[in-house]
Structures are given as C-alpha cells and as structure tokens.
Amino acid sequence: MKQRARIYYSAEQKKLMWDRWQAGDSTYEIARLFDRGHSSIQGVLSETGGVRPRPRSRSPLALRLDEREEISRGMVAGWSLRSIAASLGRAPSTVSREIKHNGGR
Length: 105
Prior knowledge:
This protein has six helices and no strands. It has helices at residues 11-22, 27-34, 38-46, 65-77, 81-88, 92-101.
C-alpha cells in the first residue's frame, strides 16, 4: 500500500486558513483554496481547539544573541563567570548554565 505524503503548510498559509476560518468560511471552502481535502485543513484548525494560537515569542528571561556573544568573548578573554554575569546584569548561574549547555570552557 502506497503511503501518502504528509502535507506541511507554511506559516503564511496557516495565517490565511485562520483568517478565513474567523471570517466564517467552512473547512470545505478553505480546502478549495489549497486544492486539498477538508480533513487536512481540519487538522490544522483542531490542533488548538479551533482557537487561533498566539504568535510565539521568546521569554524576556531567555538570553539574547548579543548576550551569548558577550559570554563567548568574556570566556576567550579569560574573565570569571561572575565578572561576565555582572557585565550583562544577569545571575552567575545563568551564565554558568549557558556555558555548560554549549560544551563548557
């Protein structure tokens, strides 16, 4: 038995689905836009119970790219964990965890 290829929708396509769904279109009408069966649209909409998911965003507690680079520069320069943390205004444990997650010194 031949297995069907899984359909992956882009973020832009999903946004269009949600816009049409909120405008009152049926899954059959939305599916016609993508030349697909209604069940593939239904799968996307039902993942969150028919409610549009909030856009993803990083936690303000997560390290930013520039902070990660500063940790890297501080390690190369031979700074202590505490001095790197003080320069970033972060807890030493945060800096320690970041270094450990990336292979250590």
